[in-house]
Amino acid sequence: MPPASDISVQLNYRPLGLVSARARNLRLDGMFVDTGAVTLPHHSEVEVTLSFRKDDRLQVHRLQARVMGRSKYGTNLTFQNCRRETYQALQEMIGSQTH
Known about the structure:
Blueprint: E1 7-13, E2 17-26, E3 30-34, E4 45-54, E5 57-71, E6 74-79, H1 84-95
Antiparallel strand pairs: 1-2, 1-4, 2-3, 3-6, 4-5, 5-6
């Protein structure tokens, strides 16, 4: 499983389509992402896709998020309605960083 502090993610922001980003700080309630030159409007909704390998199987998790803040370093997203399986995957990803 990749480090929770450096994960490739895809953001689907309807006006722009897919935006590639790097999660720099993954939390159970959201994440800080580096979107490069792409700026997402404050309070806009995005769909986040997390893809990673676990036990030789590709796991894909999608969840809704809202842009809650921006800086020159990236964008702060807060997750909305997270499914149980996705929440458990987030816990594992974050937990792997403490061991």
